[in-house]
User: Fold this.
Amino acid sequence: MKQQKGARLLYACLNMRRQLGKLITSGNLSLGEYLVLRNIRRSDTGKPADLSQILELSRPSITRILNKLEHRDFITRHIDQQDRRSINIELTAAGIEALEGANRRILSIADRLVEALGDSDTDKLIELIDRLAAIYQEILEETGDVGDE
Assistant:
C-alpha cells in the first residue's frame, strides 16, 4: 500500500509538472527559452557557461536554445572585449517584450491557481511542495546523484 501511494505521489508530481509546462509553453516561448531569457535578464554576466550552471543544463542544450533565441532576434551575442574567448549575451527589445509577455501569462496563471485553491489551501500547498523539494534534495544527496544535469 505504501509503495502504491508513493507511485501515485510521483505520478501526481510528474503530471503537475507536465501540465504547468503546457501552460507556460502555450505562449510564444518554450520553457527552456523562457528560463534562459529570464536568467539573462537577471544575470550580471550573461554568459553561456553561467546559464548552463544556473539552469543545470548542458552547454550544448544552452547553445541550442541561444541559437533559437538569436534566430528570433530575442538576444544578441558578442565577444567580450575583456576576455576574447568569452561571449556576452544581451536581450533585445523583442526579447524583453517576449519575456514580459510570458511573465504576465505566468502571473495570471498563478492568480487563477490561488483563486481556485483559496488562501489557506494555497499556503498548505506551498508548504508541502517546499517540504517535498527538501526531501528530493536529501535523497539526491544521500544517493550522490547531484550531478551537473
Notes: The CA atoms of residues 114 and 122 lie 6 Å apart. The mean pLDDT is 89. The chain is about 70% helix and 5% strand.
